[in-house]
Amino acid sequence: MMKVSDIRIRDPFVLTDYKTNTYYLYGTTDDNTWSGKGTGFNAYRSADLREWEGPFSAFRPPEDFWGETNFWAPEVTYYNDHYYMLATFKAEHRCRGTQLLVADHPLGPFKPLTSSPVTPSEWECLDGTLFIDEKNHPWMVFCREWLQVQDGEIYAVRLSQDLKKSMGEPVLLFKASEANWTVPSKGVNYVTDGPFIYRTNDDHLLMLWSSHGRYGYSMGVARSPSGTIVGPWKHDHEMLFKKDGGHGMIFRTFEGRLMLTVHAPNAMPNERAILMEVTEESGKLHLLE
Hints:
By secondary structure, this protein is mainly beta. Helices cover 1% and strands 49% of the residues. The chain has one helix and 20 strands.
């Protein structure tokens, strides 16, 4: 058994699984996340968020898998009686994209759902997250990278019910520079990372997303007062996590507490998942000290 502080991980994602009464922690777990051949994704499990078991091999690429490098940011959702993993991959002469994988258990083994990513093949994309709207239609929210567009963008695209293909063209939600808290990298490049959608008690949609702020890697909040994924999206002035950490998500404990996890610090090899309790008041999230 280990503490979460013992686990090196980026882009943490916690699944509260009611079928097994267990928490599962996923994230970017390769030793070299930026270059070199991708190994796969490890996962960890816990009954209480304090003591963790693992690592378990949740995904290892089959021989014919298209992805070669940049195995990033897996998240897992229980949907239509299966566990679906959305994760980012890259290959030589192919754009980075979000691939869906599927399994019958939270620890996998996860297998590719299709032979290619669901993000546009000609776009450099990452960090897809699954959202189910009020009509039970699945959507994927994802980033289009600053590497290709300079001012990073976040899009939503509707998916088929079986999650195997997109239904229509991606809808631009916003650009990174539209938020007042973002700071360009190297003077011109605005980053979009790690979107995650949360519905408030008053039926607004919040999006947690990360970029560079005045204190380093940070996480802010955008909101859709219409309650729809296509927005329009407005940005909170105050960041939720201000300094040297981000790519977060929100989950509820089995007791009903609202929790935020991010990785911090942002520098290799010291990244760790941090778990913090949050409250929601009048549609706003507040970290508890």
